[in-house]
Amino acid sequence: MRFSFLHAADLHIDSPLRGLDAYEGAPVARLRGATRQALVALVDLAIDRAVDLVLLAGDVYDGDWADFRTGLFFRDQMLRLRRAGVRVFAVKGNHDAESQITRQLPEVEGVHVFSSLKSETMDLPELGAAIHGRSFPNRAVPEDLVPLYPAPLPGRFNIGLLHTSLTGREGHDPYAPTTPDTLVAKGYDYFALGHVHAREVVREASPRIVFPGNLQGRHARETGPKGCELVVVEDGMLVSAEFVALDVVRWHRVDIDASGMHGIDALARRFRERGAALAADARDRLHAVRVVVEGESALHRLEATQPGTIAAAIHAAAQDVDDAELWIESVRLALRSPFDRAAAAERGDATGEVVRLVDAIAADEAGMRDWFVAQLAELGPLPSLVADADPRALDAAAIRALLGDAEATVLAQLTGDAAEGDAR
C-alpha cells in the first residue's frame, strides 16, 4: 500500500506586510499577493503529483480576516483539491486559533480541521494511515499538548499534526512547548510541525520530525527558499521525503566586503556577480534583496561626501543583471574610513578635535546611549515611519556605527573645506 502527502505550515494568507509603501518603486502588488500565489503553487503541486493528502500545521491565516475575501480565496483552493481527490487535514495555530477568526464560511467536504477542545484521530484504513491532531483554542497555549494526543493505531503509519515551538526557537513565541524526546515517546512515525518559519529537520527518522518553514517568506528576515515537504510512504514505511520550494518571492541578504575598494565600479561588479548567482539558482521568482556593504574602504568617505552614492550604485548594478527580477529592498552600510585614528587624534586641528570627541563619546557605553538619545530629542518629532521606534532599543554596535557615519560625514566636510581653501 502506497500513499503520499504534502506537509506545509504557516501560510499566513494575506499577511499585511506593513510599510511597503515607504519603498519607492517596490513591487507592492506582487509582494502582497505572494502568500496567495504560494498557496496556489502548493495546490498545483498536490494535483500534479497526485498526492493523497495535504497536511497544514497551523497559521493558515495571519489573523482575523479584514473581510470575507481571504476566507473565500482559501476555500476556493480547498475546492480545487477536493475535486482532484486530495483530502486536507489541518490544525489551527496561534495566528488562526479558534478565538482569533470571527467570520465563518461553509465547510468544504474533504477538509478536516481538528478540534480545539480535544485531540482527535482520523483513521484512513484505505491508505494505512492515521492522523492525530489538535487545534489551538486561543492564541496563547502555554501547555504541552502532546501527552493528550491519542496513542498510535496499530498497523497504521501514524502522523502527528502539531503547532509548537518545541523547546523554543529564536523569534517565535513559546507556544505548546514540548521536547523531541516527548514526540519520540509517542510512538508515531512522522510529526508534521508548524510555527517555526525556518525549515528544520529535527529528527530524520523513527519518527521523522520536521518544521517545513513557512510557505512564503514575508520580509527580509525570512530569507532563502520556502515551501513544503513531499513525503511518500509504502507498506507503512517512509520511503522518501523531499523539500519542494514554492515561494514566488524569495528574500535574500547579500553581504559585500568592500575592504580595499576605492570606487563604485568595483562595488557594482561585485554585486552583479552575486545577483547573477541568485538569478541562476531560481529564475522564475522575484528576488527581494537586502544588501549590506561593510569593511574599511574609501567608499565610506565617498558616501559621506555624496550620500546615496552606494545605494545608487547597487540599484544600477541590479539593472544590469540579465534574465532576473531583482528588487533591492534596502542597502545598509557598515563601512569604516581607512585612516590612522591614533595619529589623527594627536592632531591639533579640527580633524583631531572631531576624532577625540568621537572616541570620548564611544568610550562609555551607557554615556554614549544617553548622548545618542539626547541628540535625537534635539531633532524634534521623528518621521511617521519611525515615530514608534524606541532609540534605546538599539544596541551599542548600532549606535557606534551611526556615530562612525557621522564622524565620516564631518571629516569629509572638513577635508572638502580644506581643499577649497587651498584652491583659493
Structure explained in plain terms:
By secondary structure, the protein is of the alpha/beta class. It has three domains: 2-245, Purple Acid Phosphatase, chain A, domain 2; 248-338, no CATH class; 339-424, no CATH class. It is 33% helix and 23% strand. It is built from eleven helices and 15 strands. The protein has helices at residues 28-32, 34-48, 68-83, 180-185, 264-281, 299-305, 309-319, 341-345, 350-363, 365-379, 396-423, and strands spanning 2-8, 53-57, 87-91, 111-113, 120-124, 129-133, 157-163, 190-194, 200-203, 208-211, 227-234, 237-245, 249-257, 286-296, 325-336. The strands form three sheets. A six-stranded mixed beta sheet has the order 4-3-2-1-11-12, covered by helices on one side. The protein has a six-stranded mixed beta sheet with strand order 5-6-7-8-10-9, with no helix packed on it. Helix 3 (68-83) links the parallel strand 2 (53-57) and strand 3 (87-91). Helix 6 crosses helix 11. The chain is elongated and about 85 Å long. The N and C termini lie far apart (90 Å).
* Class based on secondary structure composition and strand pairing: alpha/beta
- How many domains is the backbone divided into? 3
* Portion in strands: 15-25%
Helical fraction equals 25-40%
Poorly predicted spans: 418-424
| CATH fold field value of the largest domain | Purple Acid Phosphatase, chain A, domain 2
Q: How much is the radius of gyration in Å?
A: 27 Å
CATH class of the largest domain: Alpha Beta
- Rounded to the nearest angstrom, the distance between the terminal CA atoms is 90 Å
GO molecular function: exonuclease activity
InterPro entries: Calcineurin-like_PHP, DNA_Repair-Maintenance_Comp, Metallo-depent_PP-like, Mre11_N, Pesterase_YhaO
Organism: Zeimonas arvi
Pfam families: Metallophos (PF00149)
